[in-house]
Amino acid sequence: MESRARMQHLFTPAGEAALEATLRRRPLLAFDFDGTLAPIVARPDDARISQAVAARLKALAVRLPVAIVTGRSVADVRARLGFEPRYIVGSHGAEDGLDSASAAARIAALDPLRQLLRARAGDLAAVGVGVEDKGQSVALHYRLSRERERARALIHDLLSQPGLSVQVFAGKMVVNAMAADAPDKADAVHALVARCGAACALFAGDDVNDEPVFAAAPATWLTVRIGRDDGASRAQFFLDSPAEMAMLLERMRVLLSRNGPA
Description:
Layout lengths: L7 E2 L3 H12 L3 E4 L19 H13 L2 E4 L4 H5 L8 E3 L10 H10 L1 H9 L1 H6 L3 E4 L3 E5 L6 H12 L6 E5 L3 E6 L5 H12 L4 E5 L5 H6 L5 E5 L10 E3 L5 H14 L4
Parallel strand pairs: 1-11, 2-3, 2-9, 3-4, 9-10, 10-11
Antiparallel strand pairs: 5-6, 6-8, 7-8
Helix pairs in contact: 2-10
């Protein structure tokens, strides 16, 4: 697959033109949470979006379908938003609330991993690894570890054990495990576009698990990476940090107002 042109900052003439053209198509607006709408914090329980971001998302949600597509569980992220989006998809695309049988199977597929993590709880605690069980995914956090190399090595060793049928991907000071057949964020966003009947999507994310969306996005979608740290990212545009998100949302609100009522 050919790589896309190097990312440009969204607040450029090219980015402005792409944003305006996308909004004219009445897109689904889909956002990751941590590192995108909310800054990364040392303790995941402390993450919240600002009042400015929440207010702008609430205003946009009146005009266009808004979705949060996050690695967190749906119940966890809902309380952190300050507004009610039309859709919330959790566990990196797996938790959509639609197929209870598939959800139960994906939860059960992680039981061997849960047993292993319980058996090695002392070793994990000793190197500062925190275990977060979200049902359809399990996250192993090591941001607070004082021995990150040892923490990563232990996580790799545990997740490489025979008998575990899981897919594994790293994030920012975290390693995630899901059922081998679990959908990813690209699957989730494509499904949401079809579900709401939108012509396209605008998606913003900041991490490895957002790259499948960037890579699978049709040419009519607008993709934005938060942070310019990954030169190989497949996103079309970037913002420097979540601090610029309120500016983007306000710009979107202004452009939609210019285009008249929904």
